[in-house]
Amino acid sequence: MDELLAKERRARLAAERRLEQKEAELMAANRRLGQHSRDLTLEIGATRRKVAAIEDEKKDVLNRLGHAVEKMQVVESQLWKALEAMRDGFAMFGEDGRLEVANHAFRNIFDDLEMVRTGVGYRTLITLMATEGLVDLGQETPHEWISRIGDLWMSDPFEPQTLKMWNGRFLKLQNQRTADGAVVCLVVDMTDLMRMWAAVHELPDGFVLYDAEDRLVMCNDRYRKFYHRSAESMVPGAQFEDIIRYGLDHNQYPEAIGREEAWLAERLAHHQKPENVLEQRLEGGRWVRVFEKQTSDGGRVGLRVDITALKETQKDLESAMERAEAANRAKSSFLANMSHEIRTPMNGVVGMTELLMDTGLTSEQRLYTETIRNSGEALLAIINDVLDYSKIEADKLELRPEEFDFERLLNEVIMLLQPSAKDKGVALRVDYDLFLPTCFVGDGPRLRQVLTNLIGNAVKFTLEGSVTIRVVGIEAGPQTALHVTVEDTGIGIPKEKIDHIFGEFNQVEEERNRQFEGTGLGLAITKRLVELMEGNIWVDSVEGKGSCFGFRVSLPTAAEAENTVGLVELDVGRAVIVDSNSHTRSILSRRLQIWGVESQSYATINALDLNTVDADVLFLSDGQDSASSVQMAKRIRAQGFAHPIIAFSENADQISQDGAALFHALLPVPAPRGDVLEALKRIEQGPVTIPLRERSEPEPEADQPIEQTPEPEALASAEQVQDTPDPAEEAPSKTLDVLLAEDNKTNQLVFSKMVKAMPITLRVANNGEEAVAAYQEQRPDLIFMDISMPRMDGKEATQKIRELEGDGSRTPIIAVTAHALVGDREAIMSAGLDDHITKPVRKDSIAGMIDKWAQDHSGERKNAGLSSVESSGE
User: Fold this and answer.
1) Which of 768, 787, 770 is CA-nearest to residue 835?
2) 805: helix, coil or strand?
3) Is there a contact between 212 and 221 (Cβ–Cβ < 8 Å)?
4) Contact assessment for residue 302 and residue 292, using Cβ atoms and an 8 Å cutoff
5) Contacts 24+ apart (CB under 8 A), 120-128
6) 170-177 and 275-281: which strand pairing?
7) Does residue 577 sit in helix, strand or coil?
8) pLDDT at position 701, please?
């Protein structure tokens, strides 16, 4: 029993041990299960998190996909709208050749036929075009056209085709196969381009277009015809240089034969310029003008214009120009010869008349002599007008700028025209701006000519009243803009003739009723001279009341031209002005005010109370009556006025010595402000006489004999020309040895008579050879040389004399010539001469030259003692 119990106990203990072991195993399994559970829980959590993340990503992807789809739909919509809006047709065919998509422009080609829809085949479409008359088949049958266009479907790449439609439109068909075998079809409307291309083909000129790589894009038939030898090379894509070389190989360019490579280099250099114009000679005498210009995309467009007819015309024009130049040279030569031939005898006429005026003449003889002189001067004026117009017409008149005194020049012109104005009772007045400089740089002689023409015309066409010259200006730095007007109270100009007044040979009067003489060239010459000075001229006029001519020129102010008229100190404080002309009184009063002199003005001497007048000087004008100034001066002196009297007189040369003694100064009318100022400055120094000109001798009685002069034929040699003067006529001393070279006996006589009262010894040579021989025999102090002489002319004689002088001192040689055309003076000076006077010569011009060029043996200027000889106003 115990054994059973022990056995049972042992069994129970073994069971307990097994139970404990199982429990331990169970606990270990539980622990493992718990760990696995924990691991699984973590894994599930991670998986859940991953699933959540994937869900989020899925949602994001779906969201983005939705946006992408929306965008694709928008893009597709916009793309389709764009395709629909395209002016060109667009279609896409599948690999099987069936239509998948087409825009409205493409469908419109088929007039919206119902059959043109998705799925229709390409060949079906071209069959519809041919059978429905949608396309112009030209010379082909529908079957031929369908077969030709259909075969193009299989070609790769497609060759573009231009189709002419039934309504005249041109469509360019372009197909492009994609990688998957589908075909994109583009139909472009080429109507405008084809019309333009047709117009280019119709151009009479050659047209060519190259791309940026200098490859030919297109050229018209005219271009090919110009370069027909190179036409075969003119295919699209051909390089410009290759086409040119092809032409060189086929003698396309005659001018390149023998120098092909050099010509090619020049042509390529021209071709590379952004813009190129050149003339090119082709075979058969044909000429083209090449125009080439770079386009905005780097290409180059060109034109070839046939100028063969223009070249022939140009050749004819050149021939005509040569004939015209020959005719012009002949005209110039004719004018020069005529000038010489006319001036030579006119030298005798005018010169002898001038000499005759210095002799004792009766009143009737003096009238005749003055008529001859005036007629001669008028003829010379006409000759000068014709010569000046010829110079201007040939554009050969050149300006010679130099310093000159404009106010003095103006007054010299006034003095020249004063006698004519006085004879007509016309007053000449000058109003020169007091603050304006007087010295400028310009062509003084040409300005003198302008003033002489304008003022001379004003005097000529004014029967009564006055002529007023006003000079104002604006200084702008070194330049002064001069504004000159000439106002008259003459006959005026009809309104319909004002526009033509500056034309050649135009006259204000009718030809049948001419009262005033003239060539009608004066104003034309004046206008051209002002324009040469870069100025302008104008006229305002009222018929029957008068005219106002004006001109404006801009001149540099001379370096010594500072206006100092307002910077003087005078001992004169008060002045009285007596002048019947209010304008003259006003001008003088303003001048005196500038100089610090107070003035009172009166129209007549009767308005002045001489007993109460308080003045340091009295200005007195005699108006038009030369005797009245002396009479008024005597009356003034008789009333006890002891202060200086300055008289303005147009007849100062006719006032006697006793009459002149009544005045402190005698001034011309109008008087330069410098002369008035000088007279005021010298009041404390006693009387000063500034006459208009030298006083002339009293006229002889009617029965006074006339001095006789020898005939020209009596002067056979130099010895015969030299008169033996009377002791009373002989100059005090003849210190200058003067040689005259002149072949004309009359001119020899005129010259000798003009200089016989001058302190010179005159020798005469009949030609250039004699002049050279006379120089070698005894070197003169001064030579007057005629230019046109037989055997040896003046220029050659001068050159011979210069050779004889060598490096020694130079003898002044003065040209005395009848040549007055432009270029004559330059030609004369280039021959070695020093100065120039033009025939007919005047006594004052001869005296001026002697004073200017007289030199002693040491080469220094000396006084030739000619102060008593009438000068030219220098």
Assistant:
1) 787
2) helix
3) no
4) yes
5) 121/97, 122/93, 122/97, 122/98, 122/150, 122/153, 122/183, 123/97, 123/150, 123/153, 125/99, 126/150
6) unpaired
7) strand
8) 38
Q: How many CA atoms, within 13 angstroms, populate the side-chain half-sphere of residue 23?
A: 6
The tokens describing 564, both together, are 């100092």
Helices (H), 439-547: 444-460, 522-532
Residue numbers in the chain where pLDDT is lower than 70: 1, 329, 332-333, 335-341, 343-344, 347, 378, 381-382, 385-397, 503-520, 560-568, 622-628, 650-654, 656-658, 684-734, 818-825, 855-874
According to the model, what pLDDT value does residue 128 have? 85
Is the bond preceding 672 in cis, omega lying within 30 degrees of 0? no
In this prediction, residue 717 carries a pLDDT of: 37
Q: What per-residue confidence (pLDDT) applies to 243? A: 92
Cα 701 from Cα 362, distance rounded (Å): 6
Helices (H) and strands (E) in the chain, counts: 23, 27
Q: What HEC string does 255-281 produce?
A: HHCCCHHHHHHHHHHHHCCCEEEEEEE
Indicate left, alpha or beta for 535 from its phi (over 0: left) and psi (-120 to 50: alpha): beta
Residues in CB range of 658: below 8 A, 6 or more apart = none
Place of tokens 């998948």: 100
pLDDT at 807: 84
Rounded-to-integer distance, Cα 353 and Cα 70, Å: 118
Which tokens sit at 489?
């109270």
The tokens of 252 are what? 């396309």
d(CA 122, CA 845): 108
As a whole number of angstroms, the distance between CA 170 and CA 186 comes to 14
Q: Which two tokens stand for residue 177?
A: 């196969």
- Backbone φ and ψ for 240, nearest 5 degrees, come out as -55, -45
Q: How far apart are CA 744 and CA 766, in angstroms?
A: 8
| b/e burial code for range 397-415 (CB count within 10 A of at least 16 → b) | beeeeeebbbbbbbbbbbb
Q: Which helix (H) or strand (E) holds 755?
A: helix 745-755
CA angle 401, 403, 417 (to 5 degrees): 90
Question: CA-to-CA distance for 506 and 524, rounded, in angstroms?
Answer: 9
Per-residue pLDDT, 648: 82
Distance CA 765, CA 733 (A): 23
Which of 862, 854, 822, 859 is closest to 838 using CA atoms? 822
* Closest-CA residue to 522 (of 495, 549, 482): 549
Matching residue, tokens 């333009």: 196
pLDDT of residue 441: 92
Q: Is the dihedral of CA 639, 607, 629, 573 positive or negative?
A: positive
Work out whether strand 598-602 and strand 574-578 pair parallel, antiparallel, or are unpaired.
parallel
Closest CA to 302 of 234, 246, 252, 251: 234
Sequence letter at residue 584: T
Burial of 382 (0-12, 13-18, 19+ CB in 10 A): middle
Q: Residue 814: enclosing H or E segment and its boundaries?
A: strand 813-817
Nearest to 688 by CA among 634, 735, 652, 650: 652
pLDDT confidence of residue 869 = 40
Q: What pLDDT score was predicted for residue 265?
A: 92
Task: Give me the count of residues in the chain.
Answer: 874
Under the phi-then-psi rule, with left for phi > 0, alpha for psi from -120 to 50, and beta for the rest, what region is 621? beta
Asked if residues 184 and 266 have their Cβ atoms less than 8 Å apart, the reply is no
| 452-455-457-463 Cα dihedral, nearest 10 degrees | -140
Given a contact cutoff of 8 angstroms between Cβ atoms, the answer to whether 690 and 667 are in contact is yes
Residue 446, both tokens: 């040409």
How far is 476 from 55, CA to CA, in rounded Å?
A: 92
What per-residue confidence (pLDDT) applies to 656? 66
Q: How far apart are CA 826 and CA 398, in angstroms?
A: 11
Question: Model confidence over 591-627: pLDDT tens digits?
Answer: 888 888 888 888 887 777 777 777 888 888 865 444 4
Tokens (6 digits) for 148? 């030709």
CA dihedral 851, 852, 858, 862 (to 10 degrees): 40
